[in-house]
Every structure is written in C-alpha cells, then in structure tokens.
ATP-binding cassette subfamily B protein (Actinopolymorpha cephalotaxi), 645 residues
Amino acid sequence: MHRYTETTRRYALHARLLWRAAPGHSVLNLFLVLASAGTVTFGIVATGHLVGALPAAVRAGAGSPAAGRVWWWLAAAAAAYALAPLINAGQNVVAQVVSARYLRLVFGMVADVGTAPYGIGHLEDPELAGRLDAVKRAMRDWTFVSGVEWTWGLLATRVTGLGSLILVATWNWWAALLAAGSYVLLAKVFVAWIGTIFDDLLEVTGNQRRQASYVRDLMTGAPAAKELRLFGMADWLVHRYTTAWRDAMTVVWRNRYHNLRPILGACAVMLVVNAGVFALLARDASAGTVSLASLVTLVQALLALEAFGPLGDGQSALARNTSATTMLVGLRTRLGLPDVPPHSPGAPGGNEPEPLQSTRSAAAAIDLREVTFHYPTRDEPTVERLSLHVPAGQSVAIVGINGAGKSTLIKLLCGLYPPDAGTIRIDDGDPSADEATRNRVAVIFQDFVRYHLPLRDNVGFGAHTRHDDEAVLARALEDAGGTSLLDRVEHGWDTVLSAEYAEGTDLSGGQWQRVALARALAAVAGGAGVLVLDEPTAALDVRAEAALFDRFLEVTRGMTTLLVSHRLSSVRHADRIVVIGPTDDPTRTGTGIVEDGSHEELMAAGGAYARMFSLQAARFAAAGADETAGADETAGPDETAVERR
Ligand SMILES: Nc1ncnc2c1ncn2[C@@H]1O[C@H](COP(=O)(O)OP(=O)(O)OP(=O)(O)O)[C@@H](O)[C@H]1O
C-alpha cells in the first residue's frame, strides 16, 4: 500500500518541479494537452456518427439531407484527426522548453547538495556520497530527460482516456468504471513494480555500482593506463568488474522476479473485466438497445480506455526520473535544504551567484580553545582538547608525524568541519558558521586543485572581488616567484592550464605549485587575514621549498601565516613552531600540542623537534649537500618528520 501512495507522492513532486521550472510553459502545455484530448475524443464521436449516418444516406441517395449529414460528420472527423497532430507538435515544442528549464532547475538542486552546506563532512559520508553519485548517474541517462518530455504525452493519453470513459458511461456507467478501474489497477501495480526496480538501482546498489564503474574507468582511462600494463592488471580488473557488477545487480534481478506476481494478477483481472464488458455490449447491440453508430463509438472508446493502463516506455522513463528526483529531494531535506528551491532558476532572487563581500585584509588572530574533533567514520578523536592562540601578524609552522592531524587542524580552522567540542575563532568570528569569517582564511592544500581554466582564474579565484584586477594577479604571481610563467604561456593570463584544450598548456608540478601559491597570495587583496600553506610544495626540491617558504614569509610579513611541512628546515624561519601529535597525557587519544616555541627555543630545549631537526640536517649533510639547507628530501616523510617527545 505504501508503494502506491508513494507513487502519488512522486507525481506530486514531479508536478511541483515542473511548475517551479517553467510555470507559464507548463500551463500552456496543460492547455494543449486538454485541447489534444478533446480533439481526439471528438474524432471518436464524429466517426461514430459518420458510420451511423451512412445507411440512411445510402438509402436516401446523393443530395439528400441524410447524405449532407454524412458529409458534415466526415468533415468534422477529418478536421479532428488533422488538428490532433498539429496540437501535438505544438505541445512537443513547448515540452522541450519545459524540459530544458526543468534540467536547469534539477542540476542546480544537485549542485546545492554538493556546495550549499559549507562543511565537507557530508561529501565524505560514504552513504550520502553513494546516493549523490547514483542521482548524478541517473540524471546523465537519456531516460531522465525523456521522462520529463513524456510527462505531457502521458497526461494527454490519460485525459483522452477520460473522454472515452465519459462516452462509455453514457451507455453503462458501472461497466465503464469497471473497465477503466481494471486498467488503473494494472497501471498502479506496474508503476510500483518499476519504481521498486529503479529505487533498487539507485539505493541498494549505489555504492557497489560506483565501485564497478570505478574499476571500468580504470580499465579504459588514461590515468591508470601505465600501471595497468606494467603490473599486468587487465585480467584481474575485468574479473573484478564483472563480479562487482553482478553482485550489484543481484538485488535488482531478485526483486524484479519476486514482485511480478501482482502484475500477473492485475493482468488477469483486466482481461476478465474487459471480456465481460465487451460481452455486455454485444448483448445490448444484438438486443437493439445500442445503435450501429453507438456501437462503433463504444468499441473505439472501450479500446481507448487502455489509456488508464501502463503506458510503456514513457511511463518507465517517468518512473526512473521520479525515482531519481525523490532521492535527490531526500538528500536535500537531510542537509536542511528546501526540498524544492523557492525560486525558478534565473528568476530574481533565484540561484544567481551572490557577489562575495570584500572584507578587511588586516591580519587576523586565531584562537582555538579545547578543540576536539573526530571524523564520522572513526571512533577515536583525531584532535583532542587542543588549544592554540596565534596573535595577528605571527607566522607559525605546524609540524608533526604523518597522520598527526595537521591537515585536519587546518580544515577545522577553515570551518570545513565544525568541531565536536571547543571553539575556533578567527578574530571574533566562527569559521564554521560565518561566511565573512571564512573569507578571512586563504588556504592552499597539499592536494590543491589544478583548474583546467585560464591562468587568470587559477590565480584570481583567491582574490574574490578583485578576480579581474590584473595588477593584483600579477603581484600575486610575482610574489609566488612565478612571473616567468607568464612569459612562457602563449596567451598570457588567458591561457587555459590544460593540454586537453586547443591553445591550452599543462604546467610542471613546480609551476602548478607557484600558481597555487599565487592564488593564496591574491587572497590578501580579496580580504584574507590568515594565509595557510598546507604542504603544497611537495613537488619542489628541498632548497626550492625552503627558498619559497622564506619568500612567502617575507612577502606576507605582518600577515598571520600558518605553514605545514615535513621538512623542518623549510619552516625554521617562522616566528613560532608548533609540534602536534600524540601527547603524554594518558587521558587523551587524539592529537594535542607537543612542543611550542621558536626554532631557537625548541633547539635549545633539546626535545623531539631538536632531535629530528638534527637528524634531518645530518642526513642531508651525509648526502653531500649544503648543511645549511638542513633537511633530507630523500628520506621518507615518516623518518624525517617530528617524532613524539
Ligand atoms: N576524511 C577523513 N575521514 C576519516 N579519517 C580521516 C580523514 N582525513 C584524515 N583522516 C585521518 O585523520 C588522521 C589525521 O589526518 P591528517 O590528514 O590531518 O594528518 P596529517 O598530519 O596532515 O598527515 P600528513 O602529514 O600525512 O599529511 C589520519 O589518521 C587520517 O587517516
């Protein structure tokens, strides 16, 4: 029963989406649907009258009033049958407009799920990510848009069926209701069955199918092509793909056959009822209570009641579409977004991008108090009761072993995750709750994005409102040590940084890092008061990284800066070095602050930092390099990083 009310709920949602996407065109199409249905029903009636008038016309001969009636009905039927395709054509044109706007609306709704919540925790929730991926895949399938276009055809068919129902009811109302009801029953059972299949495809198998697709993409894409050949992985991947796909589809196949019984039952009911109704009509016709004209009309009308039944591909496409939109709306409500956006796309107040506000660019203070955080997929906290105050204008290096939580700390600082306990403040603002505060922090992460967009955007994205100010961008690129890059790319700021585009170009790892650094520096002009580099310099050699960090500290003097690196020599010139990791406190499992001070202070203290710094310097010296560089880029990060005190 729930399944049948669910179908009604889905159609109601579909109607709301159409209305929100294109209200005017939807009304126009509804009008055309009614006109089309009226024309077809009139065609049936006119044909019936035409056949009914023929015997009298034959008897009375040409030129008689009876023959005149035949001509009249012939003209009426012809007009109806000629008009119907014209109306349908018009309706198809309008349907295209509605579909285009509908797609725009729904794609916007999907984008909201990804971007509207500022934090990124929801995108890392495997269950939610699996569903979102399933919705995106469903929307890319051609049936999604054809489901929208079919809406009007299906509606027209149903309304035409209504006309036929009225015609049959003029002969025998209960027979009409019985016949139509048997088709309705079949349609309901069919839609529920097909809806379950599509839900299974989306929900039950979302993650498994995602895995199968991932393996398929590995086999066919460029990124894994080298390893795939070198390690001879092809056969293994084919096997993995087929088993993952089969496992994913088993649920669907099982449900498909198990749920067939109600459909067979509904088919049997429909056949028996229709046989009975036709028998009744035959009895009335032979008894003379139904004229020849009425018989012709009623037979056509009874056959046309099929319009209330399952409507093939169109109905399947619509079921698939509504299954995906229902899941999408479920995701939106789960994230606290309105189920359907309050405005049509492009309408005033609709989802036009809001201009980002330029804010102060003075250095900001950072204050973390007793911050505890654990990832939803983990039981233990990653950061526990960590307190850190960074006064405005100070440069701080955050160092620690692999997995100590350095990046997590930075993500908390940007508000990408809200802490479980404690407070994080940038000046007085909470970055997880306040957009203006978030705009005060500019970060370049280890895995920064290489945008396949012009150089201008790659740098300018950091600068918010000053995105198009070439002087700002040029200054940022210069400060990042990337001025020569501008001379090397053929179309200057407009060069697309991807070889996949005509006249575009790719960059080396080091060049990309300078572009990313320039993006962070451009953010100062856009209002950032805290600059963070979370190891975006891994592709640079040790000297280049040290030089770049020194330069960064120089050009950002007076700004609040945080530097994260494994190479202790690279960050030695920061005002202050904070070592994070597991603490000696047995009541804590998460990361806390282990050491805190300037390079000189920590070296003098002779703790973990001093030991690891000396070790790195010694290794580097042993490798024959300049000792003053003081770090070993050849050692693994675990070896070179700061150990627990
Ligand atoms: N999205 C996530 N979901 C679950 N656990 C995570 C997630 N991101 C990081 N972790 C875990 O949290 C811990 C801290 O990770 P984090 O990336 O902050 O460390 P890090 O100090 O920056 O490491 P590295 O020096 O290797 O970059 C690690 O144990 C890591 O496996």
Observations:
- Residues 449-528 form one domain.
- Residues 65-115 form the longest helix (51 residues).
- The beta strands are 366-373, 383-390, 395-399, 421-426, 441-444, 530-534, 560-564, 576-582, 591-597.
